[in-house]
Fold each of these.
Amino acid sequence: MNHTVIEKIFRRHSKEDIKPGSIVWISLDVVSARDFGGPNVVKNYRKTYKDSRVFDQEKVFFTFDLTVPPKTIQYANNQQVCREFAREQGIKVFDVDQGIGTHTFMEEGFSLPGTIVVGTDSHMNILGAVNCFGQGMGDVDIAFGFRFGRTWFEVPETVKVIVKGNPRSDFSAKDLTLKILGVLKTDKLLGKAVEFYGEAVESLDLSGRITMLSMITEMGGISGFIPFNLGTREEIKKLNGLDDIPEEVRADENATYSEIIEIDISDIEALAAEPPYPHNVKKLSQIGKVKVDFGFIGSCTNGRIEDIEIAWNILKGRHIAPGVRLAVVPATRKVYAEAMERGMLQDLFKAGAIISNPGCGGCAQGHIGMTGKGEVMISTGNRNFPGKQGDGKNYLASPEIVAHSVLNGYLSGELN
Amino acid sequence: MKEYTFSGRTWVITGKNNEIIPDIDTDQIFHNAYLHITEIEKMGQYTFDNLEGWKDFSTKAKPGDIMIAGSNFGSGSSRQQAVDCFRALGVKVIIAVSFGAIYKRNAINSGFPILMFADAERIISEKKIKNLDKVKIDLSTGKLTKVESGETFSLMPFSKVQKDIYDSGSLLNI
């Protein structure tokens, strides 16, 4: 056999011949919708399938993570449309208190190695961190998935990326992600799957893998995978509390790749993505002393307890610079609880942070606020397109850099 | 039988220096401020209202128009509104160098015609096709014809799945 990871996952979910470029029907293990997209999934579903039952009540979910709790009547109405549908159909809603849907799926054991999970979230491919194929889809796609538990897919080609250079302890998963994004930009992986190899990526812990694989979207790719290291399986089991999980799907030794790209990271240093594009990656030292107004720590890319812990270690016992705001948004309730129990939230609060309930935070005019014209935001998020986080400029970087920047009052990778 | 040929005015989504703009993401097409909107007929007015130079697109576009965009068009979020807003304005076909993966699915699955035009960047920079040119497009052959000069260009025609879904109107009718 000569299949890549995604091809092997497809083979488990399809009776058809799986080869890049062919269009095949695949079965879906989980089909979900969020508070954005969800209301139109319901609308499409009711219009087309009337009172028919969803394909499997145990495999269909709503996850409200964007406008949580709803800040306008329209959002409240939209969420209620989903809740009512869920009650009629007997399907579960992870409601506005829960946090980010993809992270909830990992924590609750709904995304497991070798499975396929889809939803109305363009960062579903985060689930690659647990060796699950996650795919974001629009409301027509998901309505069909709700009803039939399957969809068509063009089998993507896979690119193999070999990351060369010794991993150093002084760079973060986000620096590594930005480094790779800066090289691959948006054209190398467009419409393709990717597998990463090399010590620097394979040594990442689960939270680092989430960071890395979440930004495949910003690289234009479909989904990414990193072979598990000796600890990954245990980390996943610890997270979802299951006694056992399926074996990881690994690529065959002679798998066929559309391209093999080597990226040397030995010159890596603190990096940030300059607006208006995530792939506009620069060394902090090149960007210079940019004054910051607002820092954000959270998002599906950097909202795990490990990310908050990094910021906490830098911020505790200190206070953010005068005139600067900092928002911290844990990815999920579970992350929030741990941050609270370990005293992180208290220290971050004392350091001057605004701490909010779990969720996406900023990405969709979220509840944590945006920037005004002329302001500069430094964020651990994944997108800095014009207007995405407000009228201001938005730099993307690691939790370390955000923490240092809000303390110093300007973009920086270390304490002044 | 669904329509396979369309004639209309073109909109070439160019930026500074008249270069076609790459990587236009869904927040520039249909900003997240309007994601609470679920009725297609209300979506048109917000099309491109966060894209510098094109904020008045909804007032300029007319039913029947054909749009030509750059590479990775519609990257970013999974929002269907970024496809539906063009439908609301009556735009008939979207042509792009390439599409964001989710955007491509969303257009195909909702039966909205999109075609890939690998050579668009060069054609546009050489001004062979400009705004408001009258063109004819055949979805099944991928042939784009400039009505005035008769000049033709080759685009990637519909794929099989795209054709099947287009013929049914939507993935939901399959």
Note: Chain A touches chain B at residues 23, 36-37, 39-40, 43-44, 47-48, 66, 72, 74-75, 78, 120-122, 136-141, 143-144, 152, 154, 186-187, 190-191, 217, 220-222, 277, 363-365, 383, 385-388 (CB under 8 Å).
Amino acid sequence: MKEQDQIDQEYRVEAAEIARPGIEPLIPIIPWPPRLRVSGLYAASRIVTPAIPAPGPLPIQPVPVAQPMPGMAPTAAAPWQIEELLPWGFLREELRLDVDGRYPQMMASGTLYGVLAKRVHWIARLTASGPNAWTGSIWFKDGDVASFPYTMVEITTTATFLSSQRKAVVRFSGGGTSVRTRTLAFKSPYFRQVEFEFDCATGVTATTHIGTHDHPNRPATLPGETLTIEEVYRRVGFDVRKSGSDSIVPIGDAGTNARWSDNEMHDAMQVYWSRFAGKAQWSLWVFFARLHEQGTSLGGIMFDDIGPNHRQGTAIFNESFISTAPTGDANPVAWAKRMRFWTACHEMGHAFNLAHSWQKQHPPDWGTPWIPLANEPEARSFMNYPYNVSGGQTAFFSDFAFRFSDNELIFMRHAPERFVQMGNADWFDHHGFEQASASPEPALKLNLRVDRAQATYQFLEPVVLELKLTNIGPRPMVLEKELLSMTDHMTVIVKKRDKPARQYLPFARYCHDMQAQVVMPGEFVTDSLFISVGRNGWDIAEPGYYTIQIALHMETEDIVSEALTIRVAPPRGYDEEFIAQDFFSDDVGRILNFDGSAILRRGNDTLREVSERFGDRAVANHARVALAAPLARDYKVLDMGDRMGEMASAKEAGGRLRRAAPRIEEARQLYTSALLEKKDQAIATLGRTDYEYYLGRFRESLMEHGAVLKKEPRDVKRDAKREKNGDIEHTMRVIKETLSSLKDQEPVSR
Amino acid sequence: MLLHVALQEGFHHDEVRVSVDAREVLVSADLTTRRQTGYAAAVEVDVAHTPVVVEVVLSKRGVADSQSVSVDRPTYLGVSLTTEGNLTWKTSYEPFGYL
């Protein structure tokens, strides 16, 4: 609440300030009626699970909403104001509205964050269409643009002194799809958050503020103030914080010559920067030193183009040319201080991925600009060299308002985060979940486990993870019963060492009837996840190390697991290498994932070969349960005759459901060798959860096909209780007794 | 007298030869501008007479150009390559600074 009051106060001050931009009033001017600033960050989030009244096809496209009748003027309760669901798979949405305050760019940008690691970023140019209303066309899209076809945006804000009641209603249209309207709550007057840390070499002073009137060569309208680096970037739109305590870097770290090379500074950054981490983050290290090894000609440098995460560190050299005022300057001390301050802001701009003003257009082999840009050789910007403009540095500073150019502001405020954020590299490689909205004090903990002492898998062996979600908070939690089996709640990342990360995309989503369960503090729920293969193909196949991490998306936060590293061993010999060409196929992946198929003949042939030739290997357990399942009971097959492949409904094509009779004896043998022989290997490779499930199915098939156990009612009750509690040994004993009793009966093959 | 020749903007894995009055003073087989600073390489030459002819050859690109430069006081010559593949020359009597 205190923070909101402060924001509200800032708004009142800003409202007065924007009445006369750039001019210092002798008597404070309070505009009337007060006009509140509405620019800033707005956000909304929701859980992705749609209401599911009954099982049915999953919506892939956005849900259509009622449209206004032609000619009907929208009213307060107009149909298009019905809030529409986010397009399928989007969890969180942000809007950056940039229409007032410092240097308004009349832009809006937004980001939709998805459950499947997808995101869409859009930018629109706005014009005012009424009080607190703007409209414009979307001119930039990035990311999964196919799921975001809109071309126009209309934004209406609610301006109030109470920041908790501020909101923006955003209406997207165009692109041949239904209108989509969302209401987002005001979050911050800033667009993004960043933190700076200022460290100095021994004996060097950081110049982090200046008096804007200290030097006489300045614009006549420039307000006199003490300007800090933090304030410069706040005016860009960043909520600037300081990280760590500014510290001293011993000069000894620069070697005996006391000049700094880029590598020495990079090493110092790793040691002295309190936020150093090998990942992208909105955090920057600013280092003040005497000289770079290049000498006095280098005033500063964003030195960090070393390693996988660039743009995290920048340096300013106090004894370089930037401290030498031109001969005859009216105030050489103020000139030098301003130049050091300017250089710090300039080098930090490089860390935000800004190029020099004259480098906006460049040869293609330098890289691709985010949008086509024009050079700005005369720009009065932090990113231009003052002495390179017409009239030199005198002309530059006589017209310099301590700001970035409009194009640079648009980039820092509205470009996709990965373009601007320090340390960001190829999206989703090296840093999996920096976008997760994880709580600092989560109430749930997600563990990934495997049923073996060492997470090493044989070649060809599919990987089944055990997920365990524990209530680590002090209060009971109400969770959906099937939460861990609903993969649309999860983002699962699999990264093979030295390869780009891949997103595991399951073959199917399952709709469950929503049933809540109470999980008490310390209690947990578990489930399994077959992760080797999905719609992306085989994510885990080749020998090597893999890191797996899962983000479970809850309504208000993401629960991110610790990363689990597994190893896939090399093939045992030529035979395994040879069969791998058939095994790592889509058919085999689907058969294993769905526990069998009566249709995918080639895949079944491969699994039979695996079962026969590699019977002692773990992969045989998977092959046998997949082969057994369709044989163990009646199996319905859609028979399309010879019309297969033509565009017609199954009914029109004369298709009919055909019943495939079970081959129970074969199924029994496969289940027995998969589950009862080498039980420990079976549990380790199938996972305890799935092992119990397969045992249950085996038992059911025995009962369905003639097995009758003579038991006292008391035993039946006791057995049911033990089975409910997942007593594997008991279930196995029941199965063995059943098999034994069947031997005394007639064969039950049909 | 000092002649400072700085290769600045636009170089990207270029094979570069710089000569002053036909004397090779800088040879680089793989020269690239550091984009953060706009600086690629520099050489300082003590010249005995003025003017001198400075020639820059980018053999892989087939680009060559020369410039007559008066060096009657310490002189700083900046050479850049434009996106169109032309060499531009900038003369200064103050050292260049890079940021």
Note: The mean pLDDT of chain B is 94.
